[in-house]
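From the thread on structure requests for the teaching lab: each student submitted one protein with a one-line request. Submission from student K.M.:

"Model Kinesin light chain from Clytia hemisphaerica, tokens only."
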Amino acid sequence: IKKYSKAIVLYTDVINRRIHTLGESHKETLNTKYFLADYIKAIELYTDVMNRRIDILGKDHQLTLLVHSRIISLQSRNIENAEEFENALVKFEETLISGYERVGHEDEDMIIAFSNLASTYRNIDKIHEAIRVQEIILSNQLDKDEIHLDLLRIMNNLANDYRKTNELNEAIALHKKVLENRIKLYPEDLEEIVCADQFS
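Reply posted by the TA:
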């Protein structure tokens, strides 16, 4: 988080210096503005989409929750008020869990929203919270005959989180499941998958 905030400050400083030395419309000035706006504008656009979806679909609809999860994840990279952000995060998680129970465990938008929520917790160094929300999703999915790509990503991320918290048996078991399912999904890439797994 600190590195991301520092990057924004540095980009802003570079922009100001380039405006002074090169001018407002110089190519290098605009390039730097673009990189800074990539983060700021994304939140603005996502917020506009979310508000429109709230008007049309309601605040608890899975598509609304999906874009809301993306906003929360982006905001977690540059927190201005930690207490305010964490309060908003708690409320969002409550809404997300309620929506998940309402629409069922198969909805891919909700699964991705939970993945974004886990990323948010990682961004603020709350690995155990990231683990908890991923376990909510996977508790209803691991016994399936076929696991789709989004779930595989969550499984892999969760395994890595287990490694960070020294839950090595859980990490190994989950990495094995990821490998088994990747082989099922991509049998033509078997050699590449196995080689990559050896070096992960």
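TA comment: The chain has a mean pLDDT of 81. The radius of gyration is 20 Å.
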